[in-house]
Write a structure and sequence with these properties.
The protein is mainly α. It has one domain. The chain has 5 helices and no strands. The protein has helices spanning 2-17, 25-35, 45-50, 60-73, 81-99. It is globular. The termini are far apart.
Length: 102
């Protein structure tokens, strides 16, 4: 539970400080990793992915779940209307894919 709260606090700080992270999960994840004192820019992607536990980095999914929770609780931290529309479309597309709808 403490780890999830730590992730949530980091995500909230990033969403407040960097509005562009509200619309783009890659920006969000990069900024959260920076808050965890990990220099993503100087490390190969493969190294990050292969050693995430060693570096004590939260998973992408934990970060995006925290974003969704915070954006539901704090309307001022929500993504732009355009980003929300894109996320809804992608969610519907995936739902159709999962259900086997063509």
């Amino acid at each position: 539970m403490a780890t999830l709260k730590r992730v949530e606090n980091a995500v909230k700080a990033v969403l407040i400080a960097y509005p562009d992270a509200r619309d783009d999960d890659f920006i969000l994840i990069n900024r959260v990793y920076q808050r965890f004192k990990f220099d993503v820019g100087s490390t190969y992607f493969d190294t990050v992915m292969s050693n995430a536990k060693k570096y004590r980095l939260p998973s992408f999914e934990s970060i995006t779940r925290a974003r969704r929770k915070l954006q539901a609780e704090y309307p001022e931290l929500r993504a732009s209307q355009q980003a929300q529309a894109i996320r809804r479309y992608e969610q519907e597309t995936f739902r159709d894919y999962a259900l086997g709808v063509d």
